[in-house]
Structures are given as C-alpha cells and as structure tokens.
Amino acid sequence: MTADSLDQSAARGTSHTLTGSSSNNTTLDSPPFHPEKESRSHPSRPSSRHSHLTTTSSDSSNDDPLSPLEHALGRTTSIPQTDAIYQQDADNNNNHLTHTRTGRTSITSAASRPPDYEVTISTDDPEHPMNWPFWYRAYTIITVSYSTWVVVLYSTSYTATLPKIMDEFDITSKPIATLGLTTYLLGLAAGSVIVAPMSELYGRRPVYLVCLAAFIVLIIPCGLADSLSEMVIVRFFGALFGSAMISNSPGTVVDISSDKYLALCMSLWSIAPLNGPVTGPLIGGFVNDYLGWRWGNWLAIILSGIAFFLTFFVRESYLPTLIKQKAARRRKETGDENWWCKYDQRSVSTWGLLKLNLSRPFILAVTEPILWCFNIWISVIYGILYLCFIAYPIIFTQHRGWSPSLTGLSFLGIGLGTLLSIFLEPLWRKMINSSPKRDPLNPSRPAPEATALIMCVGAVLTPIGQLVFSWTSLPASIHPSISLLFGSVPFGMGNTLSFIYGSNYLAGAYGIYAASALAGNAVMRSVFGAALPLAGPAMYQAMSPQWAGTFLGGLEVMLVPIPFLFYKWGERIRGKSRVIRLMREERDREEKTAERRRKRAARRAARDGRDAEGEEGEGEKTEVEEGKGRGREMGV
Fold first, then answer.
1. Enclosing H/E stretch for 272
2. How far apart are CA 121 and CA 464, in angstroms?
3. Membrane-spanning residues where (predicted)?
4. Which of 76, 404, 594, 613 has its CA 20 to 30 A from that of 105?
C-alpha cells in the first residue's frame, strides 16, 4: 500500500517537492509531493454569500479555530489541489492537450477552448450548494450525519452480541469472536484511502448511493451466517464500502456551509457519528436480549435502508462535479461543442489518483516526526476507547451480573462526555482565540500551537477518567454511578478533545497536505482500534480489571507530554519538518513572484502614463504649429 520504496520516494519528494518549476514530464503519480499551489479563489469557499442565512464577512473565519480541520475534512484532495492538477495538465500539454469531455472523449487543441465559452458556477448562482434553501441544507446535514452514525454504530453493536454468537458457533475463545470487530475497523481503514477518493472522480452522490447499497447487501450474509468466519470476512468488505460515509460526509457539510456557520454545522454533524460507538452496544444489547443476535444485523439493514432512502434525495454538492455537469448540459442543450470547463480535462487516470492517495499518507507517516508523535498518541487513545467495548461487558456483565442490555447503558457516561466536549466548543474557542500563540503571517489568527492548549486538556482528562473508572467500577459494592460520572464522563471528554483538536493541529500544520496527513492518522488509529480489543479478554483476566485499567491509564499518562511539547515548542518543531519547510519556501517564492509582478505592473502603468502624456504634448504642439501655418497663409 506504499510506494515502491519509501526512501526513494522521500528522496524524490526532497528534490521535486514544491520547487515551483514545471516540467513536461511531470505527472500526478510521480513524485509523491507536487507543487500544489492554493488557488487564489477557492471555488467552494466564496468570499461572499447571497443567502440571508450565509452572509459573512471576509474575516469571519478568523474566529473559527477549527477551520483548518473543517476544510481538510471537506476534501480528500482539496479543490485547490484539484485545480492545481488540472492546471498542471494544461501547462504540461500546451501543444497536445487531451481534453476529456464530460460523457465523451475528444482531442482538441488548447486554442479551441474560447474563454467566452468557459462554464463556471458563480457564488450567486442558484446551483451553488451554499445557495440551496435553508431547509434543504439542514436536511442534507441531518441525512449524512445519520448515515455516518449507522455505519459507526454497526461497528460496536457487534460487541453486545458476542455471548450468543459464541454459544451458537461453539467458540470458546473471546479474542477469536472479537475478530468481527477487528476486521470491521480494518475495513474502515482501508476504505478511507481506497473508496473515499472516488468522490473526486464521480462526485459525492454516486459514491454515497453505491457504497450504501453495497453496505446494505453485505449485511445480509452476516445475518444469515453459519459460521463466525463468514461474518469476519464479510464485515471487512461491508466496512470498506461504509467508510465512504465517514470519509466524505464532512465534505458535504463543507460544500453547503458558509464560513460563518461552518463550525456550527460541523459540530451538529459530529454529534451522531461521535456517539455511534457508544450507541452501538446500547442498542445492540437490547436487541440481543429480546430478539437475538441475528436481529442486530436486521436492525442495521433497516437503519441503513432508511439512510439510503434519505440519501437518494440528497443532490450532488461537490463543486467540480457540478461544473462538469453544467458544461455537459450546456453542450447538449445548444449543440455547441465549444462549451467547456476547466474540470473537463483530466490526464490523470483512476489508478494514478488511487496511487497518490495510497502512497502519500504512508510516506508522510514514515518521514514526518510530527506525525510519529500524533499518530502514536491518538492511535493509543483510540485503541483504548475500542478496548472499552470489550472491557465494559467484562466488568458489568461478568463481575456485576448485568444483562447485555443493561451493560449497554454503562456506555452512556462516555457518550455524555462526548456531548459535553462538543457543547463546550464556545469555551474552547475562547481559550484558543485568546491564546498568546499567534500566526506570524496573520496575527489576527491563532497559531496551530494555540489549539494544542485544548489538546493538553484532553490529554489530561483521558487518563484521569481511565484511572478513576478502573478503581471505582469494582468491587460491586461501589455504586456504578461513581465510576460512570467521575470516570467515563471525563474519559469521553478527553477522547473527543484529543481526537478533534489533535486532528485540527495536523490540518493547520500541513495545509494543502492536511488530507494526506489525516488519512495516515485514520489508518493507524483504526489499526490500533482493531488490534487492542483482541488483547482485552486475556489482559483483563490475567491482571484483573483494576490493574488492567491502571496499565492502560499508565500508557495514556506516558503520552500526556506530547501535546504539552507541541504547545511549548510546536513552532520550532514545525520549522524542522521537511514538508512544512518546503511549503514555506514555496510560499515565499510565490510572494516574491507576486511582488515582482506588482512592480512590473506599476512600472508598465507609469510608462504608459508617460507615453500618454507625451502623445498629448505632441498633439498640442502639432495643433499650435498648424495654427501658425494657417495664420501665415492668411497673411496675418
């Protein structure tokens, strides 16, 4: 899943990354890092809005410290990056441009694309997703949030059915039975780099519908399974398709939300997906107790069917796809083949795009020390979170004698902590915006290190919650509300803050490469989430729940210094990053180039002004001489 050689790829990246030079031999899939310049006007983030609910000023986003993460989540490859790919194609093929039209293939020259026939979607165009009616945008956010929730819920609802699955298939090893959870998380990891990029080629809506349909179909074999191995294998492929909702639905939210309301919309969207792991055992436990374990799959089909039905009425929101569709429609309506858009031409193959998305996250993960720290920290926290879905049934079902349905209620503490962390977003925003850590290029905005302050809060709350829960959940003489309120709630808050604001730090630090950095992080944390639950049963049996929980809390305590390290010396650490350093060098070159262009334009304007004055003076002199000539002719 990586490039042929990480060392060779990294070497190529060092020599070619962000050099600002263009070559006729440059293609998308060689080398791993290309000079992806940000476009001056972001098609999906217009500076002005025409809906009364999306009016914003140009600096409104300065108040949103989560804007780097929000924009990174809205793209697998950013639209500026996509624009750069198309522009690169045009630059590399000035003499032999292959123009792939929407719905057909033809070869034309660049000169045959008249500028007057270029198709765009302006910010005041009713077709622009941000100008959709308010009720429809709200419907879209609710739909993609609900659909993502179903995919996440199905991952952990499986854990509530383990006892009956083990009984029916005569399985004595709980780690073997847990493989259904493991393969599901591995499927989500694989899908984040394989299925998610398809939205750039075909748009978001087709990917949603195809992947949801495949997800529903692949649940059926799990409900009819005659062996655990069938479920283990099929759940992997079901998650592979279901991951499209997790990876792409934030992009839909970004597509339809203005800068002013983006933070609010992302917060509302995240409520359901972030609580999916918690509601899975809760719902799955009651279904398992009263209807049987197979009904956990039938319920997932029903919920997924509702998601498919709702998603069917969600329109396409990915702007490049909308512009291509508009160009194709204009050609069909007028019969004039001259209509075109910049997204029609694409010399990049599907395999090239996949190769880029498969290689770059892993190259970054291997070569960037910043990602070493964040990937380990967030992955351990994420893995321990999923280990809880094995540990809680051991504590509450085996030791306290609760039924699976009542054990599902024990996860409400984590869910409450998650909700509190989301609802306290105005407090976190105030802390970040008032931080003395400022962006040196734009002092009105906080630096990424300001975000690390909230990461520190999350890093401290997580082990505190873990350790308190470990020593108050047992013995059974301690009331369970103590462990849930003072253990699970801070644990849930810490997990959510660490995940959201840790991801936001990476997005702010890596800029146009944020999507790749986050994709690598998603793969690694999913692998940890898949692996740690396998060790849970043996560890809790050998060490006892109290000491096993203490061991996990100790791991989290050991990782607490990471966010504090970046809060204190983050700017210096980022300055030593090869990729970030090259991005800064490219930015400086662009600024110098822009300054030279401004100076040349000013000199040209001044020269034109002097020429105009000279011509005016010559004209006046000519008029005077002509007047004198006429006077002499008249004898004056």
1. helix 259-274
2. 51
3. 134-156, 176-195, 207-226, 232-249, 261-283, 295-314, 370-395, 407-428, 449-469, 481-500, 512-535, 547-567
4. 76
